[in-house]
UniProtKB/TrEMBL annotation:
The name this protein goes by in its record: Uncharacterized protein
Main location: membrane
Biased segments, Basic residues type: 11-29
Protein's organism: Coniosporium apollinis (strain CBS 100218) (Rock-inhabiting black yeast)
Biased amino acid composition, Polar residues: 30-47
Domain of life: Eukaryota
């Protein structure tokens, strides 16, 4: 056996102590995220977003109001007239439904006739309401146009306060006098009865109007566009016309009861005089 020489010792050390490094397989680089590595498609879906502010999502709901605004700008008188007729019709219908008498108890088929579904509705009363509203539509429209074009100061609070006070002092009592006087006159009442109706209803309605219309008028002139003020006030006016119609009906019933008492008191002296003459 031949002993290894000095020159072969480094070679033997490298052969005995040197271990080759294992080869590593390089994976192909992927542009997809590790969460979607096993997904069949490499493209990630992009979320759909609506551009613009959130109030644009309600744009389809505003289309009827835009249509009304275009009609108001195109033919303001016709639009105002039909809007007022609808408001007065709904207000009178609501007032009649609230003040209708209660249905009688159900009876047998052989008994008396049962009350119909619309026996409580008075069409003549509705015609009176439509006549009053139709005559007041255009003057009321011009009044609010004039009120919007005047009393415009540097202070918005002063402007709104002045408009509210002028409307409550000038327009509201005149309109209430017109409303109740026309209701009484169209019912066939005379001048004395018309004056009594106005005296019995206008102070109460004017006082109660301070609870509703100052806030409505201020909000309308502050935040509502010119072409939408009539429809905004009209929505509130449905409830207000309901109140005015009910107040007018109560006054008419009170006047009818007063007439009955007067007739009764007048008839009693006549009857006493006849009995005295017969004796």
């Amino acid at each position: 056996m031949i002993a290894p020489g000095g020159a072969s010792r480094p070679l033997l050390r490298r052969m005995l102590f040197h271990r080759p490094h294992p080869t590593r397989l390089k994976r192909p680089k992927s542009t997809s995220s590790p969460h979607h590595a096993d997904s069949p498609s490499s493209e990630t879906p992009t979320p759909r977003t609506i551009p613009g502010p959130i109030w644009l999502w309600l744009e389809p709901l505003a289309s009827p109001f835009h249509a009304y605004g275009r009609m108001q700008n195109r033919s303001p008188y016709v639009t105002q007239l039909f809007s007022t007729l609808i408001i007065y019709f709904l207000g009178d219908l609501s007032a009649q439904s609230f003040s209708r008498p209660q249905a009688p108890a159900s009876t047998s088929s052989s008994g008396s006739k049962s009350e119909g579904a619309l026996d409580w509705y008075d069409p003549l009363r509705a015609v009176r309401a439509l006549t009053i509203g139709g005559l007041a539509a255009i003057p009321g429209y011009h009044w609010f146009l004039w009120l919007g074009n005047n009393f415009n100061y540097r202070s918005k609070i002063l402007s709104l306060g002045t408009k509210v006070v002028v409307n409550q002092i000038a327009f509201t009592p005149l309109f209430n006098c017109y409303f109740f006087a026309m209701q009484s006159a169209l019912s066939g009442a005379g001048l004395r009865e018309v004056a009594e109706r106005v005296r019995n209803t206008v102070p109460t309605s004017w006082w109660n109007s301070w609870k509703v219309w100052p806030a409505v008028t201020a909000f309308s002139f502050a935040f509502v566009g010119r072409e939408f003020r009539s429809i905004f006030a009209g929505v509130v006016a449905i409830g207000w016309q309901t109140y005015l119609s009910m107040l007018n009906q109560r006054a008419a019933e009170a006047e009818g009861m007063g007439k009955g008492k007067d007739v009764k008191h007048v008839a009693q002296p006549r009857k006493a005089a006849r009995s005295a003459a017969a004796a």
